[in-house]
Amino acid sequence: MLDSRRFLERWIVHDLKYLRENLDLVRTTLGRRGNDVPWDTLRTLSEERQALTAQVEQLRHELKKGSDEVARLRRAKEPAEAAMTAMKQLGDRIKEIEGGLRGVEETLSDLALRIPNLPHQTVPVGNDASDNSEARRWGTIPTFSSPPKPHWEIGEALGILDFDRAAKIAGARFAVLTGAGARLERALINYMLDLHTSHHGYREVLPPLLVNRQAMTGTGQLPKFEDDLFRLRDEDYFLIPTAEVPVTNLHREEILSEDRLPIRYTAYTPCFRREAGSYGKDTRGLIRLHQFNKVELVAFTTPDRSYEVLEQLTGHAESILQNLGLPYRVVTLCTGDMGFSAAKTYDIEVWLPSQQQYREISSCSNCESFQARRASIKYRPAGGKKDAKTDFVHTLNGSGLAVGRTLVAILENYQQPDGSVIIPEVLRSYMGGIDRIQNK
Predict the structure, then answer these.
(1) pLDDT per position as a tens digit, 268-280
(2) pLDDT at 384 (0 to 100)
(3) Pick from 76, 77, 199, 393: CA 20 to 30 A from residue 109's CA?
């Protein structure tokens, strides 16, 4: 694993020679995780690049010899026109081949950006979610005297969720929250931000909701996942799928001082996703929308501390659910179920009574240096001089939490026989003191 990890780290900064020499190593290491990578095309282009590079180097050698000969002829006051014409033709040929070489290298670089991160050695090997490993559970699953209702029935009966008007305004996979529903969503956002900033040491950020192509590429959404993103028609801007994108890019192309690390940010933003691969999944309710609210956690740290910071970040997300009294479990994702940029991911899954199962409410990931290399985010060792050798930071991110899904969990876990919903105690001050939502 170590050799292949070093390989990928060099590859991402486009060491194409190293790519050609170690292609089979990384393909084997990634296994199923690299199924979408066009390995045969990479091999063909790598060999073509090698041949073109050798050809250019040979022609440049001939050009140098020819230039020396032209200089000699001029010094000897002998005719040099024929030699100069040959050298011009040779120079034109070099430019032509160099143009082809640049095209090959650009294609190789683009394909290299489509290679997923290598999994950490502690990640369980597997093909899909059935191979994930449960790490722990918290809380007591509630019992009900009658079958628990799904959140959309609860919300519509209370008059706080309106999917029909949302469909009229925007279409499917949108929702309108009104009255106590809208206030509960806002209360959750404020509570999450207050806890993360006041108790967990995060600095709040309010970033742009539109980002450029470089920002999306830096965190790994582009080029592979462009079809899942909303893009402006007349400008090359994208609506963010998560605050991870703008917040991680805050330090793009920067060198941070080690004594500042770890740096922790939290941000509330709306998020926008096409959900291109989710046809037929969660078509009702708030679980899978094109637009949803989320509080994000992002951290930058040194490589030697990144897995310690991952445990901390995951714990910070868990504390929200614990304070809300919502039962959940933490799952370590297997190699075949992890996201593109992650080296290791914990999913936090909250219990939904209507489905009688745990559903994802947060993914907390250590991306190691994968994003930092794409976005050129480095750090200089503490006490080092200005010209001291720098290294790439490790970046981490996680939902702290997905707000809509937290609202779903509250509606379902705190539903009462009379149709009302109890408000968790920690939210009541954010709700103007009310302790339950009921149909008026």
Answers:
(1) 999 999 986 666 6
(2) 62
(3) 393
Which residues, including other chains, have CB under 8 Å from residue 374's CB and lie 6 or more apart?
12, 113, 217, 218, 219, 220
Catalytic entry in 185, 264, 405, 412: 405
> Which of 54-58, 184-188, 242-246 shows the lowest per-residue confidence on average (mean pLDDT)?
54-58
Homologous superfamily of 2-112 in CATH?
Serine-tRNA synthetase, tRNA binding domain (1.10.287.40)
Q: What's the angle, vertex CA 6, arms to CA 382 and CA 13, rounded to 5?
A: 80
How far apart CA 87 and CA 290 sit, in angstroms, is 60
Active-site annotation holds for 273:
yes
Q: Report domain extents, the chain.
A: 2-112, 129-437
Q: Which of 25, 23, 215, 32 has its CA nearest to residue 112?
A: 23
The class level of CATH for 129-437 reads alpha beta
The verdict on whether omega for the bond into residue 223 sits within 30 degrees of 0, i.e. cis, is yes
pLDDT tens digits, one per residue of 403-433: 999 999 999 999 999 999 999 999 999 999 9
Whether the model clears a pTM of 0.85, i.e. scores above it, the answer is yes
Surface-to-core class of residue 425, CB atoms within 10 Å of its CB (0-12 exposed, 13-18 middle, 19+ buried)? exposed
Annotated active-site residue in 43, 288, 305, 359: 288
Query: Which residue of the set 360, 376, 420, 436 is catalytic?
Result: 360
Tell me if residue 436 is catalytic.
no
Is the separation of the CB atoms in 210 and 172 below 8 Å?
Answer: no
In this chain, the answer to whether the domains covering 2-112 and 129-437 adopt an identical fold is: no
| 394 backbone dihedrals φ, ψ, rounded to 5° | -105, 135
Given the DSSP bridges, would you call strands 161-162 and 344-352 parallel, antiparallel or unpaired?
unpaired
- Among 5, 173, 273, 374, which one carries the catalytic annotation? 273
363 included as an active-site residue: yes
Report the range of poorest mean pLDDT among 16-30, 142-156, 247-261, 401-415. Answer: 16-30
| Residue whose pair of structure tokens reads 């920067």 in the numeric block | 254
Q: Which of 363, 365, 369, 399 is the catalytic position?
A: 363
The contacts of residue 106 (CB under 8 Å, 6+ apart) are none
How far is C-alpha 122 from the geometric centre of its chain's CA atoms?
A: 20
